[in-house]
Amino acid sequence: MKGIIARFSNKQILLIILSVIVGVCAGLGAVGVRQLIRFITTLSFSGYENFLEVLHTIPTYRKILAPAIGGLIVGPIIYFFAKEAKGHGVPEVMLAMLMKDGKIRPRVAFVKAIASAISIGSGGSVGREGPIVQIGASLGSTVGQYFNLDRRDIQTLVACGAAGGIAAAFNAPIAGALFSVEIILGDFGVAALSPIIISSVISTIVARHFEGNLVAFVVPPYSLNTPFELLPYTFLGIVAGLIAVSFIVTLYYLEDWFEKSPIPEYVQPMIGGFIVGLIGVYFPYIYGVGYESINGALHNQWPLYILLLMIPMKIIATSITLGSGGSGGVFAPSLFLGAATGGAVGVITHSLFPQAASAGAYALVGMGAVVAATTQAPITAIIIIFELTQNYMVIAPLMFTCIISTLIATAIKKESIYTLKLKLKGIELVEGREESILKQVKIDSVIKEGVFFYINHNLKYIIDTVLSTNQSVFPVLSPSNKLVGILTLNNIKSVFYEKEALAELVIAEDIAEDPVYLTEDSNLQDAMDIEGRHSIEEIPVVKDSESMEYRGIVFVHDIINLYNFEIKKRELALAVITRKKYKDVTKGLNLGEGMRLMELKVPDSFVNRSLKDLAIRNNYNLEVLIIKRGKNTFIPNAETVLHEGDNFVVVGKYEDIRKLRQKEGV
């Protein structure tokens, strides 16, 4: 493969060609998943078309047993073959982008397709878009790994696969591309955007070839009858934001509840399916992806009480399905909740003001509003609804309502339905992988004394000292050790050839420039920002901006080394959390080269103290990878406070681990 790659002098052209391949694969994957869902739904309920009518013709026991049997099959498949297939898919893709250089195991696509099709087809209250995104992303990652591409190119192909998944799912290529850059990649750069757009278009064309110009929803004509309707749309935006937050909170509450449950993990989906089946007997609208129920809301088919009941029932059913370990997405449930919420607001508005648009119009806008609030991706939500309607009239109220719902949701809950899952694992997602890590690591571990000058040092001493060191930036200090300026090689070069004449006449204060510095509480990202603005390889550190008391200097190459070390540490931590061979490390696990991984009980002397205060790296030469608190396992940061009963997994040399155990009595 390297020989093939070498023939392409322009890497961008290679990425474009590979994005076409990924687009074809993503389109085929989407079509395959849909057909598999159709087959399993028919097998489970004796019908697929007019699903709600079919449910009235089958016995009650079948409505209950179908989701339970589906869960019984899905649980072992996920547990034993690919745990990444559990849940709604998109956070797992984001995790791979953030922590694994975009590398996803090839088997994930296959396992996710099977598990999701069974979960949805047997009645699980989840969507198919999330799985299709994960399948497309997995295929993109596999292509990138096959061609031995570098990290950024693999991540671009992962984003291409995700874009192709959404595009094929909704017949919406623009929304697919924007979803990928807004949620998966977080980067609107042309280099990344171009192959993503191509992959999204190709995936849509492939899906249309096999299924025709498939329309996910039959959308009614839309019109904004009066500008005064912005008032009920404002109300809709507020309610949609609150519904979205309720959905997020309920979903992760039940996920946490099932994780703490003593029930075996591979059995939990069966129990979740049984509960969903019981709900479905009395309220069948919650079964499966729910597109038929959404279409009913768009065409004013449901009375107000049904629309109002749809909201809590769908939240509970979806949260149980996913919380218990089922496989499926949250995109379609968000659309469902939006259609029900908007439809209810529309029914009330139309009854009070007959000149207002129909309830279906409000259901359409509500779909975008709840999606925008749950995903915190309003641009994607707006474009999806626009591509579904292809009606410019919907844009104004849609944008207005989506922004309001997003503002409400973010004001209450900082994390989206996708990023909260990462945060609960101890992973902060910022603008990208680099910033996420660099912003969490303080500079105190890389501060060195460095070479510095006092303001009265003469030129001869300065030049002689500079010639004997590799340092290129030199702090200039007052007699009281306060930073007053810096000297760079450029400053010194300006007087270097006049060294003999000015040797005793020029002092450091004369040629110093204004100080560039960091404070002790700065993080590595602050250091890299200064390096980027000033193009300097060393940065002085002071206690604070008021005292300017000199503390030392940080070297950019040390920051890069620490960043690479933090990546390796987090990858190992992630392996401890997700891989079965690391599940029990209480007796220790040899990692080679004298390094050992071991789980220890937190000593009493560590309780109620932060990792920063304990300085375990400096005091014991050990790294804390993860904290186990009850049934919760997460990656800590410097501010994490240890609690009584916690266990932590450390990595280091066996001798250092032994010293910690002896000294602290663990």
UniProtKB/TrEMBL annotation:
<keyword id="KW-0129">CBS domain</keyword>
<dbReference type="InterPro" id="IPR001807">
    <property type="entry name" value="ClC"/>
</dbReference>
<feature type="domain" description="CBS">
    <location>
        <begin position="511"/>
        <end position="569"/>
    </location>
</feature>
<dbReference type="GO" id="GO:0006813">
    <property type="term" value="P:potassium ion transport"/>
</dbReference>
<feature type="transmembrane region" description="Helical">
    <location>
        <begin position="302"/>
        <end position="324"/>
    </location>
</feature>
<feature type="transmembrane region" description="Helical">
    <location>
        <begin position="230"/>
        <end position="254"/>
    </location>
</feature>
<protein>
    <submittedName>
        <fullName>Chloride channel protein, CIC family</fullName>
    </submittedName>
</protein>
<dbReference type="InterPro" id="IPR006037">
    <property type="entry name" value="RCK_C"/>
</dbReference>
<dbReference type="InterPro" id="IPR046342">
    <property type="entry name" value="CBS_dom_sf"/>
</dbReference>
<keyword id="KW-0813">Transport</keyword>
<keyword id="KW-0472">Membrane</keyword>
<feature type="transmembrane region" description="Helical">
    <location>
        <begin position="266"/>
        <end position="290"/>
    </location>
</feature>
<dbReference type="Pfam" id="PF00654">
    <property type="entry name" value="Voltage_CLC"/>
</dbReference>
<dbReference type="InterPro" id="IPR036721">
    <property type="entry name" value="RCK_C_sf"/>
</dbReference>
<feature type="transmembrane region" description="Helical">
    <location>
        <begin position="361"/>
        <end position="386"/>
    </location>
</feature>
<dbReference type="GO" id="GO:0008324">
    <property type="term" value="F:monoatomic cation transmembrane transporter activity"/>
</dbReference>
<keyword id="KW-0407">Ion channel</keyword>
<feature type="transmembrane region" description="Helical">
    <location>
        <begin position="191"/>
        <end position="210"/>
    </location>
</feature>
<dbReference type="GO" id="GO:0034707">
    <property type="term" value="C:chloride channel complex"/>
</dbReference>
<keyword id="KW-0812">Transmembrane</keyword>
<keyword id="KW-0406">Ion transport</keyword>
<dbReference type="InterPro" id="IPR050368">
    <property type="entry name" value="ClC-type_chloride_channel"/>
</dbReference>
<dbReference type="GO" id="GO:0005254">
    <property type="term" value="F:chloride channel activity"/>
</dbReference>
<dbReference type="InterPro" id="IPR000644">
    <property type="entry name" value="CBS_dom"/>
</dbReference>
<feature type="domain" description="RCK C-terminal">
    <location>
        <begin position="583"/>
        <end position="666"/>
    </location>
</feature>
<keyword id="KW-0868">Chloride</keyword>
<dbReference type="Pfam" id="PF02080">
    <property type="entry name" value="TrkA_C"/>
</dbReference>
<feature type="transmembrane region" description="Helical">
    <location>
        <begin position="64"/>
        <end position="82"/>
    </location>
</feature>
<dbReference type="Pfam" id="PF00571">
    <property type="entry name" value="CBS"/>
</dbReference>
<keyword id="KW-0869">Chloride channel</keyword>
<dbReference type="InterPro" id="IPR014743">
    <property type="entry name" value="Cl-channel_core"/>
</dbReference>
<feature type="transmembrane region" description="Helical">
    <location>
        <begin position="157"/>
        <end position="179"/>
    </location>
</feature>
<feature type="transmembrane region" description="Helical">
    <location>
        <begin position="392"/>
        <end position="412"/>
    </location>
</feature>
<feature type="transmembrane region" description="Helical">
    <location>
        <begin position="12"/>
        <end position="37"/>
    </location>
</feature>
<feature type="transmembrane region" description="Helical">
    <location>
        <begin position="330"/>
        <end position="349"/>
    </location>
</feature>
<keyword id="KW-1133">Transmembrane helix</keyword>
